[in-house]
Structures are given as C-alpha cells and as structure tokens.
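Lecture notes, structural biology module. Today: joint structure prediction for complexes of two components.
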Amino acid sequence: MEGSNKQSVDEPRQSSPAGLIIRQKEPTNLEMPFDKVDSYITPTELFYIRSHFPAPRIDVTDYQLRIKGAVRNPLALNYQELREMPSETRTATLECAGNSRVFLVPQVRGAQWELGAVGNAEWTGVPLRALLERAGLEDDACEVVLEGADRGTPAEEPIPPGPISYARSVPREKAIQPEVLIAYQMNGRHLSRDHGYPVRAIVPGHYGMASVKWLTRIQAVREPFQGYWQTSDYGYWDYLDGKPVRRALAEMKLKSVIARPRVYETLLPNRSYTVFGAAWAGETDVTEIAVSTDDGQTWAEAHFIDPARRHAWRRWKFDWLTPNQRGQYTLLARAKDANGTVQPDGHDPNFGTYVINHPLPIEVLVEDPSER
Amino acid sequence: MEGSNKQSVDEPRQSSPAGLIIRQKEPTNLEMPFDKVDSYITPTELFYIRSHFPAPRIDVTDYQLRIKGAVRNPLALNYQELREMPSETRTATLECAGNSRVFLVPQVRGAQWELGAVGNAEWTGVPLRALLERAGLEDDACEVVLEGADRGTPAEEPIPPGPISYARSVPREKAIQPEVLIAYQMNGRHLSRDHGYPVRAIVPGHYGMASVKWLTRIQAVREPFQGYWQTSDYGYWDYLDGKPVRRALAEMKLKSVIARPRVYETLLPNRSYTVFGAAWAGETDVTEIAVSTDDGQTWAEAHFIDPARRHAWRRWKFDWLTPNQRGQYTLLARAKDANGTVQPDGHDPNFGTYVINHPLPIEVLVEDPSER
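The predicted structure, tokenised, for the full assembly:
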C-alpha cells in the first residue's frame, strides 16, 4: 500500500479492478470508487447507478414516447421514429443530489453516498426542444413533466396512497434550452438498463433526479407540478416573507471533490504527491480551486486539467509536498465560480439530506512504513 | 477499465491508492475496499475500523488495566507492567458481525457493510489466561467481562437510561484458551488509536465485537453478563423447548467472500480470469471452496493459496475462462469446513441484522469494449 507517491494525472493509471461500491442492493444504488477518476469522460461501467425502484425491462419494439398535455398536437413516437430525428451529443456531469451524504454528522436517512455519486458522460439524443416544437407547446405551459416507466411506493413521508411512477418536472425556460436531451446513447453506445434503456432525459446543470430514466411520457402542464419527487422528496425549504415554503431541488450547486488521496490513505513523508479532483457547477463555470492540507487553516491554488465547459466537470490537480512530520492531515478543496461564489463552509439544513456541497474533509496518514 | 484480465494472485499487484470506504463518518466506521486483498496479512492501514463511540484518547502514562470481580487477588497493571509480561504473537481474522449487511434485501438498519469489514492481522500481547492466573480466577467464575474506555448512549432499542461503557463478556472456557490475547501490537507496531490504542482484547474465532478496544477493565463474573451489547445488540434468537431465548453472538460462522472481481466489474470475454477470495471459520478449519459463475446452477472447486491455520483466513483462487457470450454473470463462492458444514443458502432471520454468511452474489459484466 506504501508504493510510489508520485503519480501522473494526465496519463491513465495502471488498469486495476474497477467495479462499484454497493450503497443499496435493491433497488440498485451503486457508487463509483471516486479514486478511480482518471479520464474526463467517466466510463459507463464506472458511472454511479441511482434507482428508486427495480429497473423496468422495456422491449424496444414496444417502446413508445408520448408527448401530451398543454400541446397543440399530442404525439407518440416509437423508438425508430425518435432515432430518425436530428440528434445532438453533449457532455454533461450528473450528480446525485444526495452525493456525500455520509459526511453529514449526525448521520441522516438515505443512501450513505460518499464521493462517487457523480460522473461526466457524453449523451446523445434529440433535444427536448425539438419534440416540444413538433408537439406545439402551448404558450401557457409553465413546466414539462418527465415520467419514467419505473414505479412503486416510495418510502419517505408523506407517503402517497399507492404505487406511483417516477416523475419530475422541468421549468419551461429550462426545458426549451438546447442542452436538454431525450437521450438514447451514453458514451457512444445505447443506454444500459441501469442507466435508463432505451430512452432517458438528460437535464444538464440539474441534479441527477431531473434526468428521468426509462422515459415514456412527456407532459406539458399549466400549473406547477406538485409530484412526490419534488415536494416530499428532492425538495428543500425556501423562505417567502419569512415563511418556509417547499421548493423542488433543481440546479446543481458548486462543488469540488478530492478523488486522490482517498480517506485514510497512507502517504510517504516529504514527497511530492499530486492531489487530484474534479469540480462542477450548475449553470455557470468553475473558475478557481483552492486546496488546504491543514484542515482549512491555509489554502493554495490548484491547477485545472480541463477547460471550462458549461455543464461538465473540470478536473484539477495540486502538487503537495507531504510533511516530514508523521501524523494525520485533513485535506479540503474549495471551488469558486464565474459569479464569484465560493462553496459554503458547511451544510445548509434547509436542504435536509441533500446538497452536501461544502468542502469535504479527506483525512490521510503521513508516515514512512520502512521506519516502523 | 478494460485492461488485462489475467492476474497473478501470488504476487502483490501494482500498488494503487488504498484508503477505506466510509460507511459512517462519526463514530468512525470504515471498510476495506475488499478488492485490495493482496496479502495474507491485511496491512494495518487497510484494516476495517468499527467504532461504537468516538475513539477515546488514552495517555499511556496514565493507562491502567484493572482485573477484578471473581478473582482472589484483584490487581491493576500499568502499561509498562503489561509489556514486561511474557507475550505471544498470533494471527487472527476479525470479522464484524454485521459484515455484508448491504446484501440483505429488504435493507435493514445499521452500517451498510459490503465485503470488507474483515481483516487478518498479527496481534501481539499477553494471553488473558496469564492475567487470570495471576489474579487467581475463582472456580465459580463463568464469564469474563471485557470493558473498554469508549462510552456513550447506544442507539438501538431497548436503550439504556444513560451513557454506558462498551463491554462484552467471554465465556470462561474461551477466556482461558491460549489464543485469547490482551494485545498492544498489531502487525508489529503499537495499536493505532482507531484500533484500540494502547491495549485491546483479541478473541480469535469470535466476531469482532468480542475483541474489545481501549480495554481498561477485566471483570470475572459468577453469573452470565446481560450487558447491552450481548442482549439488545449483538444478540440473536435461539430456541429452548420451542421458545425463543436471547443469546449473545460469539463464534464467527463459516464464510467465503469473493474479493476479485468486484461487483459490476467488466471482464473481457473468452479469457482466463483468476477469481480470488478468502474464507474463514470460527473454531474450525475451512477445507473446501466451491465457486459458481452461473448464479449457483453449477459449482467447481477452487484452490487454496494459504494453508489451514485455526482462527486465520485462507485465501483461495479459481481460474475462470470467461464466456464468449456477452452479458451479466453472477459469481458465488461457498465454503465447507472440517466438520462437513457448508455455508447456508440464505440468511437466517434469527440472527437479525447480523451473521450474513450465505454465498454473496457478485454480478459482473462480460463484454469486449473494443467491439462496442
């Protein structure tokens, strides 16, 4: 485990067993071991899997996508018809809104995600806008509800009276942006079943819960949708005239995460070690990363590996000369965005068990095993 | 991620970032990424950490170990006096009784351990027997209670009225066996704080909860100890004349775990891949490992890497020719012990959220990335 402290972050590292960390067995909730981030694009087999219910089995020959509600020409497309429409390919980072929940103390309900419920992939599909144009979106439609084929009775209070389909709305102004895709490919191949085969939504810049998998229905609505997954779950408390009001989570918040070293990794003293990570923001760009190796007492600037690209993460690195003094050290990374916003110092309780975007402590041990 | 399928299991693999997986941030509950098992002895920095309360800080100059209760000569030893007694070094596997809990469906309470809440280390210390002889254990003492300096109010019902110290009893017949140590070294170095510095118990063959960390008190008792951690927690239901009675968990049950491949790892088709794992039993030896690559329909025999050694794990390997047919495959491993016992097919509900020792499914993907 000692090994070389010196790493190249630009070259792929030695291939090693990958696989995912199980956070929940059924439904399938698996996390990427985040120290495995080596490339700008997350390989599909390393991309986290977040499911609310068992993954439906959809036969592509039976597949139908219905577009209805506040539209002039409700329509239904089969898979072939969707594939024949002009497509686009976009890179987008998806992060689960509950990523890093294991860092909340005291512990809270929900899957105990650490760092790896996030990934950056290339998505190919038809812009939602093109479908809404074809269906003739009414002027008074305020939101577009995306509904999946996955169904069940959710666990968190208030619990609806019977099984419901997974569904989330996207505000009209976001739904008509060119980046929002009705996607059928991930990283150049058809979607895997766990990632929404045959068709899913991709809402770049929003937390993963907006990118509905196994998408079968698109419904334009004239009043805000108050579905389970934007009120009971995936909601937060905002304040209106001092009174708390419930709102749906949407845009991803600014965040930077250390991929290497990993928690409790042992590093050699007095060596160059490249701290490596990734950072992302919702609808803006990450412009600066600061790293602390003394639990936030002092900070230094890290260097970006990737250019700023809206809706995609930027990997970064920081060359650390590890201390001579044996002991435990706490590393932190903190991002700043193009608006001058920096990550908050702690978790905002109005977000409940979601939006854990403060700098996350990575404790490492510095010691020389040969001197034991 | 593709990489070479062919591995040597006898040679250490390329060093790669190690570190641990966080299952609970506070108190510290960290798991070994089990695909990192490369050596017979688990390096200390990879050994899982299971804590019930924050780790106490003990100054070794103040440290005292008291031996009292049903003994003729109650005594107290300081750290130096303990170190001056004749010591022994033994290899023992410790497994958390809740290891693999994440495989239980539906999900149950408690840390969602996957495979890595187990490790095999060398422990050095004074046999408990020597201390009990020195203190003059009374003939009518039936158990020995081991008490740590860690304290708090536990979370599971029935909850005691106030903070209590972590304590567990060992039956007399086990306590006087030569393998039970009052240990101050792990893998040749003083214990780390997370592993019980300066002194802990090691009860080989029993689940980890018996190996009390931060040990400060040894109390011989004349009636069975009914403490929280052997009645409320770490207990199971046995049957006496058809009536359920509560008993304390003790011996580790026979178990075999696949370390590589890892869940959702992608393997190349039609290649030799060495499936690799470890198996252990409580008070007997593991004598046989069967591996299935088709979810239990057919089984083949694996080969041991390590000899049988009471209280320590045996690593094993199995050469698999991966199928030509792309798809998902479920791997299982099943051990047999010297008594002819084999692992059960499923989890016994009498053990509640503990003793998850049935063959655990490892789903892998077989496909050739170049043919995508």
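Point to remember: Chain B touches chain A through 46 residues (CB under 8 Å).
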